[in-house]
Structure formats: C-alpha cells, structure tokens
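Hello forum,

I keep getting stuck at the same step: I have a sequence, I want structure tokens, and every attempt I make locally crashes halfway through. Rather than fight my setup again tonight, could one of you with a working pipeline run this one for me? It's a single chain of 173 residues.
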Amino acid sequence: MKIFGIDPGLDRTGWAVVEKTGGGPLKLASAGLIHTEKGTGLGKRLLEIFDAVTAEIRRSAPDAASIEEAFFSKRADTQANTTHARGVILLACEKTGLAVNSYNPKTIKANLSGNGNADKRQMQRVVQLILNLKETPKPDDVADAMAAAICHLRLGPFKAAVANAGKKGIAVD
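Reply #2:
Ran it on my machine without issues. Output:
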C-alpha cells in the first residue's frame, strides 16, 4: 500500500509518499516541499499548490491520501491561509480520484510517538526511526507529511474494519 501524506500550508506544504509491502517495514518512496512565495497573489499561490499536488499524485500513483486536519491557531490569517491550501489539496485529490483520510495533529503525534503533544523535533526523530532514515527529515513540514502517511498506514486498516463491521450490521458503538 502506498500513502500520500500531506501537511498543508500556504507558504510551505510538505508531502511524502510512504509504502508498506506485505509484512515488511515502512519505506519512504519520495518526499518534497511545495513553497509558494509571499507577495504573490493568493489565487496564484493556491494554483501552484494544486498543480504540484496533482502532478505528484499522478507521478506516484498512491492508493490513498492522508492529510493533517487544520488546527486552530492564535493567528486568524495563518488559519485562513492553511484552510485555503487544504481546500485546494482536497480538490486535487478529488479530481485525481484519490481517497482522502484526515487526521488531527494530536492523533498523528500520539499514534507515532505516544505523546499527543510531541514537539517538532521529537516527531522528526520518531519519523526518522520508523522509516529507518539516515538523517532527520527536514524541514518539519515534510516530516509532518511523512507522519500523516505513517499514521494512516497504521490506523487505516482499523478504520476499514470498523466501517466493514458497520456494513455487516455489527454494532461498533
């Protein structure tokens, strides 16, 4: 299974493709950063994100996407810009037929590190260990995208089993 992880942001959107084959270890297939320039119009920046995400989805052909949910920031402008970026990323996934799974940042952190309040450096180190990387993944936006993909590879089968049980009439409450 190949998962396209995404950490949305207007300035910097991190992305990563993480694979799991059979019972083997998780493997980083590719990763990158989409950086849009401040001072460029919002529409143009969003189009850059949309085009880059669409191109990467087509290139890597993942089975599903895992995107970090928007979190509430003290800065309304940052929150709005992240929400805009997340919207065009969801649109790119929809237009390419890629199923999207959303995870709260605390859920991702708790799933990978055992601590829902882990800081950026802790998460980078955990991702490095899980993916057996020689170096700490940088920048943190890319490490967060890797973490989102890993989280779905771990929780996705459980979510699918719960959904399947509900379809079979098994109570899952």
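The radius of gyration is 16 Å. If your local run keeps crashing, start a new thread with the error log.
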